[in-house]
């Protein structure tokens, strides 16, 4: 158990990386470990999360507009669904992306 790698942790010292950096994490990101100063980079993640978030905002909003809803309702529902999907993507990235 002592050698078990943690999720979203420094590959050098196994300390948790700063959580605030996960919000803008991409393939070119560098996350510096607060404990040892190691500069960790995520493995290739792809760009699927941008398209997923985009469609999660646009499609529900468009459905509301087609159902004769107001523009304000469409924006509110689209953004609400988008925030939930973005949160789910962050949880996935936190649990699955490895660093080197």
Blueprint of the fold:
Elements: E1 31-32, E2 39-40, H1 48-66, H2 71-96
Antiparallel strand pairs: 1-2
Helix pairs in contact: 1-2
Brief overview, please?
The chain has 100 residues and is mainly alpha-helical.
Q: pLDDT below 50 for ≥5 consecutive residues: which ranges?
A: none
Order of helices and strands: EEHH
Largest sheet entry = 2 strands, antiparallel
| Outline type | elongated
What class, by secondary structure content?
mainly alpha
Distance between the termini: 21 Å
Q: State the strand order across the main sheet.
A: 1-2
How much of the polypeptide forms β-strand, as a percent range?
under 5%
Integer count of domains: 1
How many distinct beta strands? Answer: 2
Rg over CA atoms: 18 Å
Q: What oligomerization state is this entry in?
A: single chain
Average pLDDT reading:
85
Helix content: 40-55%
List the total number of helices: 2
Name the features.
100 residues; two-stranded antiparallel sheet; 2 strands
């Amino acid at each position: 158990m002592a050698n078990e790698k943690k999720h979203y942790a420094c590959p050098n010292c196994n300390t948790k990386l700063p959580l605030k950096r996960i919000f803008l994490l991409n393939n070119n990101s560098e996350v510096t470990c607060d404990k040892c100063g190691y500069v960790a980079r995520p493995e290739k993640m792809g760009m699927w999360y941008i398209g997923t978030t985009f469609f999660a905002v646009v499609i529900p909003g468009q459905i509301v507009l087609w159902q004769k809803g107001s523009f304000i309702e469409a924006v509110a529902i689209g953004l609400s669904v988008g925030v939930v999907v973005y949160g789910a993507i962050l949880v996935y990235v936190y649990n699955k992306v490895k660093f080197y």
